[in-house]
Amino acid sequence: MNSSAILNTAVTSAVPLPNVTRMDFPSNFVWGCSTSSFQIEGAALTDGRVPSIWDTFCAKPGAIRDGSDGSVACDHYHRWPEDLDIAKQLGVNAYRFSIAWPRIITEPGGVPNQQGLDFYSRLVDGMLERGLQPWATLYHWDLPQYLQNLGGWENRSTIDAYLSYVDVMTRHLGDRVKHWITHNEPWCTAMHGNWDGMHAPGKKDFKVALQVAHHVMVSHGLAAPIIRANVTESSVGIALSLHPLRAASKNEEDQEAMQRHDGLRNRWFLDPLFGLGYPLDIQAHCAEYLPEMLPGDMDAIAVPIDFLGVNYYFPETISAAPQNPPLHTELKLLADRERTGFGWEVAPDGMQELLCRIKQDYPSIPIYLTENGSSYDDHLDQDGQIQDTSRRNYFIRHLDALKQARQSGVDVRGYFAWSLIDNFEWAEGYLRRFGMVYVDFATQVRTIKQSGYWFRDFLQLKK
């Protein structure tokens, strides 16, 4: 998920809760929870795994707010049966996970690591035994460090390495896993990793960021036919982090700034995905930073997909900022807005607005909410309970917005809550808790929160 910190003060709201039930959605609607490998697995030196760019980034002084790392995280590598049992207990019918590339291909051009393959076989079999439909994400930011040493996603050869890895994984799991997400949030891979430096590998070069974004999107397009060749009845998509935008004012400068920000934040990824190429206005504005491209690249990116994954968290308010090249924009924080403990605005209407915009601006495509959730400062009370009422209310309000989007004709077919369990929240370390399940990171004890019990009750069909 996108871990760019905005503000660290939660602001709550007394907005009346809407009435939304499981019966407001079709019987075949997908209800899931999402996780990612580096954030939960731990076992950094176990069974042949090699370092990822996040292991290296965590070792950099000051990179992680609490000075922690993901070497243990939630120890999911050893505790996955318990975590899948909890997912089943919550009543979800799908489980979105990501595969750690550094567990599979441990050196440039190397043969697959059987221990890594075996782990994901056990994990997928465990999902199926519990009635959980596996949704696999092939890349959730943990690039092997040996590839970063060769230039990472800036180097076009990483595309070839990725395709080899995709081929291995889809051949290995394709008999059991039918739903595949090529990349999670290419914006974060490119921009947080290479422009603002908040994420691994920690670079601050806008031209590099655009080159990385291009190579990631090309790799997505080239991976799709490999997946389809290896997996019968496959369903292939990509998960994008998208934000509805508001201009800070009605003046022309802020309106234009919002358009520029939208061009890079949303359209730079959506437009080429649907065959429209990179936005011409952003190409003109950022002409000196444009990526190197080869003939056929844009056709590759525009390969048909079976679904679009949308990760929605919050809207952004944008103003003009001539002092901030190259976009000359800045994010404005409006003090009167309700916010999570992470400082992210709570705006269920933004979800509905975003989904309706996708329906209006792009070809018809099935949509899954592949991430949606909130971070609050959860604590165990004296009875060993976690009363995370704000997160429960967040789910209620956003599911109502999802219901309304569907009623407006948006083809949304599933919802994945972020996240199943508290985890390593990237540059924030263990300071942020998004889980429906509380994790005591000292003991690894799991405790279902109030929001998790609410989600369980919501999913139970009343007879």
From TrEMBL:
The keyword Hydrolase applies. InterPro entries: GH, GH_1_N_CS, Glyco_hydro_1, Glyco_hydro_1_beta-glucosidase. One of its GO terms (biological process) is cellulose catabolic process. SUPFAM superfamilies: (Trans)glycosidases (SSF51445). The active site is at E185, E371. One of its GO terms (molecular function) is beta-glucosidase activity. GO terms for cellular component: cytosol. It catalyses: Hydrolysis of terminal, non-reducing beta-D-glucosyl residues with release of beta-D-glucose. Substrate binds at Q39, H140, N184, Y313, W418, E425, W426. Belongs to the glycosyl hydrolase 1 family. This is Beta-glucosidase.
